[in-house]
Design brief:
By secondary structure, the protein is mainly beta. Helix content is 6%, strand content 24%. It has a five-stranded antiparallel sheet with strand order 2-1-10-9-7. The longest helix has 11 residues, at 63-73. The protein is globular. The protein starts with 54 loop residues before the first strand and ends with a strand. Mean pLDDT is 80; it is low at 6-14 and 26-42. Residues 1-57, 95-125 are annotated as: Disordered. Residues 32-45 have a biased composition (Low complexity).
Length: 186
């Protein structure tokens, strides 16, 4: 105690021009709010923009990729021929992950993208790679320590096993001897 009157905690309320006591009613829709009164959400956090649409993949036989693989494989790939006329596969990416590989004949277990369908790509492992949904809504590819590796956009060196590599719209993921998976944002 200092012996004097206690200081006022708040300055006195203005008598005119400020907010008046009692319930505040917002102005009719489309009219500006009076100073000091905000429309709900007018300056607060805005909702995130909607996602740009679902991601899709196209799985196809890539003659250029096959030719590059044959150059690199040397005598090992001498007898391998790329079949003609396989239809493209189209798949919308849903869920948290999409597995890529070949069906296991012994168990019948099949990946989401099954490359054992005719014409079977002999260079694809049973558990070759995986597409994984990222926190930002994009996708990444993860090689599952496949025998022949996974490359992106025609690169010669395969990606490291078990390391997610973010993908962009239009990227090409190469697996096996001739399979390319083109990733597109819807």
């Amino acid at each position: 105690s200092y012996g004097g009157p206690a200081p006022a905690a708040y300055p006195p309320a203005p008598q005119h021009g400020g907010p008046q006591p009692g319930p505040q009613v917002p102005p009719p829709y489309g009219q500006p709010a009076p100073y000091g009164h905000q429309q709900p959400g007018a300056y607060g956090p805005q909702p995130a923009p909607p996602p740009a649409g679902p991601w899709q993949i196209t799985v196809w036989q890539d003659r250029e990729y096959f030719a590059a693989m044959m150059e690199r494989s040397g005598p090992e790939g001498a007898g391998l021929r790329m079949p003609e006329g396989a239809p493209e596969q189209h798949l919308q990416l849903t869920g948290q992950q999409i597995t890529i590989g070949r069906r296991r004949q012994s168990t019948g277990e099949a990946p989401d993208v099954d490359l054992s369908r005719p014409p079977e790509d002999p260079g694809v492992s049973h558990q070759h790679a995986m597409l994984v949904l990222q926190p930002d809504g994009g996708w990444a590819v993860v090689d599952q320590d496949s025998t022949n590796g996974t490359t992106i956009n025609g690169a010669e060196d395969p990606i490291q096993p078990f390391v997610p590599v973010p993908l962009r719209d239009g990227d090409r993921v190469h697996v096996g001897a001739w399979t390319t998976i083109t990733v597109r944002r819807g």
